[in-house]
Amino acid sequence: MGAGGPLDCFELPATMYERLGGMSFFEALTEKFYSRVATDEVLRPLYPEDLEPPKRHLRLFLAQFWGGPRLYDEERGAPRMRLRHLGFGIGEAERDHWLANMTAALDACQPGPLERTQLLSYFQSVADHLVNR
């Protein structure tokens, strides 16, 4: 059907990436998260001295996962998250600190209630999945 046809009133649902405002949301989220990691006594030892590379990796991964550009895959290949995190001792304390810091960062970014629920559900699942000790 052409312009003005019955299908013109239907739009494809926006991706989470689009609903959140694009890359700027993920930039803000990772900045807020890593500012907390920098002072977290449980998590800080797991990260390199320079937090910029892991900050970039997380930002690109999250943006891609939620429907943004595939920059993470272009730079790093398939995510393979569990494999990439095997070298770090991640127990319940690390998981809980990571999730608390990510939740605080997310809340500081003030996504809508539906987006917050979806993001937190995902973060909880990932945090549990990465526990390796």
Domain count = 1
Number of DSSP helical runs? 7
Number of E-state strands: 0
**Order of SSEs:** HHHHHHH
Distance between the termini: 57 Å
Based on helices, strands and strand pairing, what is the structural class? mainly alpha
Q: Would you tell me the overall average pLDDT? A: 92
User: Helicity level, as a percent range?
Assistant: 55-70%
Task: Describe the protein.
The protein has 133 residues and is mainly α. It has a single domain (17-129), classed as Globins (Globin-like), CATH 1.10.490. 60% of the residues lie in helices and 0% in strands. The protein is built from seven helices and no strands. The chain has helices at residues 16-20, 23-37, 52-65, 71-76, 81-85, 92-109, 113-129. It is globular and about 50 Å long. 18% of the residues are buried. The mean pLDDT is 92.
Which helices and strands appear, and what pairs or packs with what?
Blueprint (H helix, E strand, L loop, with lengths): L15 H5 L2 H15 L14 H14 L5 H6 L4 H5 L6 H18 L3 H17 L4
Helix pairs in contact: 2-3, 2-6, 6-7
Question: What structural keywords apply?
Answer:
133 residues, mainly alpha, Globin-like, globular
